[in-house]
Write a structure and sequence with these properties.
By secondary structure, the protein is an all-alpha fold. 60% of the residues lie in helices and 2% in strands. It has helices at 4-11, 30-35, 61-71, 86-96, 100-148, 151-164; strands at 45-46, 53-54. Strands 1-2 form a two-stranded antiparallel ribbon.
Length: 165
């Protein structure tokens, strides 16, 4: 049986608007993978080639196929304004009215905001992990102390009293 990814590539082989591709980031595709932000393997990306998003869904064929059917194909962009709602059209027009330098600065600012969010998440996650380890250790010590105070003997005595009536 073909792997799910190969099956999906076969399903979309004749598509005029969607491309399913496999890139080996450990070989010739390394530069491309760095450019589009691949940090771990395997990674699935989708969307506009200039703004690929991370796929977070299932990895079996049915999940991949359902996602592809619903999400791949032409989407709102400067090249497909007819697919945009009024809000997105206005946003695109605003960006197109700016110089390349202005757009580049905006992109760098927004990418910096994403990096800040990622750093904050990592910092908070590390703090949470440390807190979890501390309270887990405290719980284990508390349980050990309770048991040292005779809990097991108390249970044995209670069972003996019940048995003797």
């Amino acid at each position: 049986m073909k792997p799910a990814w190969d099956q999906l590539m076969g399903e979309f082989a004749e598509s005029k608007t969607s491309v399913i591709a496999d890139v080996d980031c450990t070989a010739d595709g390394k530069g491309l993978c760095e450019k589009i932000g691949v940090r771990g393997y395997p990674t699935i990306k989708y969307g506009d080639p200039n703004n690929l998003e991370d796929y977070q869904g299932g990895r079996d064929f049915d999940a991949l196929k359902a996602f592809a059917d619903e999400n791949l194909g032409p989407s709102c962009s400067p090249d497909n304004l007819d697919l945009c709602d009024d809000e997105k059209k206005t946003q695109i027009e605003g960006f197109l009215g700016k110089s390349l330098d202005e757009i580049n600065k905006l992109i760098k600012t927004k990418e910096g905001e994403i990096e800040d969010a990622e750093k904050n998440f990592k910092t908070e996650l590390e703090a949470l992990q440390k807190n979890y380890e501390e309270i887990s250790k405290q719980k284990d010590e508390d349980i050990k102390d309770v048991k040292k105070q005779g809990l097991g003997l108390m249970k044995a005595c209670m069972a003996a009293k019940k048995k003797s009536g």
